[in-house]
Amino acid sequence: MSNAKYITQEQLADLSQRKNPILTKIKLIIDNSQFNVGDFVIKLEKSYDWDTDKLPDEFTPEYIDYNLKVPQKFVCVHIDDEGVRYLKELEENNLEGIEDQEVIDVFSGTNFFDDEDNQDVSCFVVDPEYQDHLLISPDLEYDPSASYAEAQERFNSLEEKNADIQEFFATVKDAEDFLKNVKVGDTIYDESGDPIVVSKVENKTLKKKDYHWKAYNNFKMPSYTEITGTITDSDGDSYEVNWTPASLAGNSIFTQKPFTMDDV
Which regions of the chain are under pLDDT 50? Predict the structure, then answer.
């Protein structure tokens, strides 16, 4: 509705091309949240990458635990007259105690296909695992916690396997006992599992001016071993690192490539 006395046809044509950005976003979220009460949903995200200065191409789920790679699940508990969906987050994807969980709406933490600069993008969608269950076993009750329990069991097995190839150094003496046996060309792995190819092994005489002199002197160490190597991180970037007993004390390394969830 408009008043022709106060607005021209050109202005009306211009207004028809305009869209309120807030209302547009609200409509997008509602239109793309087409799930029903009782459906289990997950949250998909794209986090802005400041290194590449853009959003990634693919969505990834919001995980309960990044190590487990199990998506956090929600259940749709209400749809209002405007079509807005309301959800409850499942603790460890378990329905137990769900009645005490806070109700959230699909706008909470959602930024659906926003094209503004430097913005993360996220949305709620029906859980693919739940969809598969409805297709394969529609007569059986769905257990949203099953995949989390299975992943937790696999992760515990993974921790046990990696413990056998992990060296923890409680003191500089423990670290020195390991480093003095390292040879040029050896590959060892840091706590993140990134490989270090050793290029130099040096025995250095301890001097009082050394920053960690006291730590070494407590174990009456006249010298210590320093290794130099090239580390390649998970992004494929390589750079030089130096390790000494002092830098390793209180930390651990792996003597071979650590196992991953794909190995258990």
Answer: 114-115, 118
pTM, entire model: 0.68
| H or E element in which residue 87 lies | strand 85-89
HSE-CB at 78 with a 13 A cutoff on CA atoms is 9
CA 259 to chain centre: 18
DSSP at 98: G
Q: Are residue 102 and residue 197 in the same domain, yes or no? A: no
Taking only the tens place, the pLDDT of each residue in 235-260 is 888 999 999 999 999 999 999 999 98
Token pair 């609200």 is found at 26
CB count in 10 Å sphere of residue 259: 18
198 contacts 187 by C-beta, under 8 angstroms: yes
Q: Which residue has the tokens 């378990």?
A: 94
- Domain containing 183 equals 165-263
For the residues of 222-244, what is the DSSP string, one character each?
SEEEEEEEEEE-TTS-EEEEEE-
- Shared domain check, 141 and 242: no
> In this structure, are 129 and 90 located in the same domain?
yes
Q: Which amino acid is at 41?
A: V
| 194 contact partners, CB below 8 Å, separation of at least 6 | 231, 232, 233, 234
39 phi and psi angles, rounded to 5 deg: -75, 145
